[in-house]
Amino acid sequence: MNQEKKRSHVLSASPESSARRPLGASQVELTNPEPPEGSPVDWEAMSRFAIIGIGFVVTIAALFLARSILMPVAAALLIGVTLRPIQLYLARYRIPGPFVALVLIAAFSAILYFIVTLIAGSLGSLIAQTPDLGTLLREKLRWLNRPLSEFRDLQNAVRGEGESAPKVTVESNLPELFQSTLTLLTPAISELLVFLGTLLFFLVGTEKLRRQLITLFETRDARLTVVRIWNDIEQNLVAFVGTVTIINLGLGVVTGLMLYIVGFPSPLTFAVLAFVLNYIPYIGPAILVTLLLGFGLILSPTLGGAVLPPVLFVVLATLEGHFITPSIIGRRLTLNPFLVFLALAFWTWLWGPLGAFLATPLLIVVLVALGHLFPRDEALLPK
Predict the structure, then answer these.
(1) Of 263, 262, 261, 255, which is closest to residue 284 (Cα–Cα)?
(2) Nearest 5°: phi and psi at 96?
(3) Cα 63 from Cα 298, distance rounded (Å)
(4) Nearest to 100 by CA among 127, 117, 80
(5) Which tens digit of pLDDT belongs to each residue from 253-280?
């Protein structure tokens, strides 16, 4: 009798009420669920998408695994393209191409050696001037003692009063230290040799390489596309890197003068750092602000004197990034900040610090190539 009542109650229920009634504690309410009709799965499109995804993952893995070769090669090619106008200008005076390439490489190596030697020597001497850094920093940051003590008490309460912190012992072993240093320097030296060799042969045989790349394609349209991509990459890279170099040089000079006026030690070193680090968007200025604050806390007698140089540099970097650079570069060379940030994050994750320097030039190369291979008409938004 009870089973017949339950059955009649189920049969008399409306479809809407049965559809809206929750079927379980972990399910949601549905309104008239109906399966789609006439929409078969496009397996061909899904397979293409899967192949593209697999190719993308394999490409990233190859870039990561072959970074010791690809990083110096990519850096040499990008620098070679930016040095191309100088090479063409000297070729007008009938100077041999190999001689011009050797001169350019020697000049670039000398500038790089000067920058590395100046920065390493000056920062090392600044650190050597203050042997007791711990005591000095404790005196400068005494106002943080109370918050730190409160945080330490909270940590001890969570961890337990009786539990002691682990002790760390450091042992010095000269053979192991020498071996680790040699292991660290060997890849850097090999990558430097690959970079110099690639840059030399690229500058010597640029025209031949360009002709061979063009003649790989049979149709006239394909060859014209290659020529346009090559020319646009060269033009955009030279314009962007040249303009940014001039702006960074001005920022370095102004930063050095500012540090000299406020009495900050080694203003030339930090001026060179401002010039070099400003090639890395966002991260470079942040690194310099951190260095200025750290050395200010170490070397300045007062906390206000330590904070003043980084604050002034933040003002200079803000003026340069938001007003000076956009007005000089203009809309034609202005890149999307979101794309620049993504490229910076991707290449830094993939190739480290050198990838951060190469992120923006590589983004320009990719955007130029995609713009020619997949042209798009700009859609006008309704007013």
Answers:
(1) 255
(2) -60, 140
(3) 41
(4) 80
(5) 999 999 999 988 889 999 999 999 999 9
